[in-house]
Amino acid sequence: MLYLLLGAGGLWHVLGVFQEVMQVLASPIMIGLGVWLFWECWRIYPRHEQSKFAITSIGIVVVSFGIEWLGVRTGQIFGSYLYGQTLQPSIDGIPISIGSAWFVMLIASTAVAQKVAPKSLANDFRFKMAFLVALLMVCFDLLMEPAAVKLGYWTWMNDHIPLQNYLVWLGLSFIFAGIGFQVGVFRQQLPRIAFHCYFAQLLYFGLVSLSNL
């Protein structure tokens, strides 16, 4: 269902149909993915770990939203950029869905890292795992950025995506993932839906980028 939903959305961009519908649905889909992923993860955690997972998740959403707000206001974190009108509603120019997007990608990247990393690495080298998660986040961002600009999510000054953006993505993702592994919530094997969420979103943004050709 996840691949069908996001794959169809990407295909609509390639064909140039339902564009207004996709603009309206962009933020609800981001928030819906976040809620869905949170629920699927919540269910697999032992009861005594659920509150820790909830606090960590809320922290990721709130802190990432705050960093995005500072980034837009100062132009000094990711570079100089502004959000468009596609992702609505927003608070002070920052889409409320952006925190959910950070949460989804962090969980999805962690699930992929858990799959590809040797068990010894996952169990004994938390910060190496955090770095792997951060690399996966940056790989995703490399594909997402041009597509997001085309979709009107945000625009960069002079239409140039600075290297600074990717370096900050790497650093913030490493910090978020490092905290997740340090407190123990990312040591739990995440559900398969989290793994597939990474590649389903790659499919969506890849198809959007293909529509540029």
Radius of gyration: 17 Å
In round numbers, the mean pLDDT is 88
Q: Please tell me what the overall shape is.
A: globular
Poorly predicted spans: none
Strand content: under 5%
Could you characterize what this model shows?
The chain has 8 helices and 4 strands; from the N terminus they run αααβββαααβαα. The chain has helices at 2-15, 19-44, 47-74, 98-116, 119-124, 126-150, 163-183, 192-210; strands spanning 81-83, 90-91, 94-95, 154-156. A two-stranded antiparallel sheet has the order 1-4. Strands 2-3 form a two-stranded antiparallel sheet. The longest helix is centred in the N-terminal third of the chain and has 28 residues, at 47-74. It starts with a helix and ends with a helix. The model has no long low-confidence stretch (mean pLDDT 88).
Q: Would you kindly provide a brief summary of this structure?
A:
By secondary structure, the chain is mainly alpha-helical. It is 74% helix and 5% strand. It has helices spanning 2-15, 19-44, 47-74, 98-116, 119-124, 126-150, 163-183, 192-210; strands at residues 81-83, 90-91, 94-95, 154-156.
Task: Give me some keywords for this one.
213 residues; mainly alpha; two-stranded antiparallel ribbon; two-stranded antiparallel sheet; 8 helices; 4 strands; 5% strand
Question: How is the secondary structure organized here?
Answer:
Layout: H1 2-15, H2 19-44, H3 47-74, E1 81-83, E2 90-91, E3 94-95, H4 98-116, H5 119-124, H6 126-150, E4 154-156, H7 163-183, H8 192-210
Antiparallel strand pairs: 1-4, 2-3
Helix pairs in contact: 1-8, 2-4, 3-4, 4-6, 4-8, 6-7, 6-8
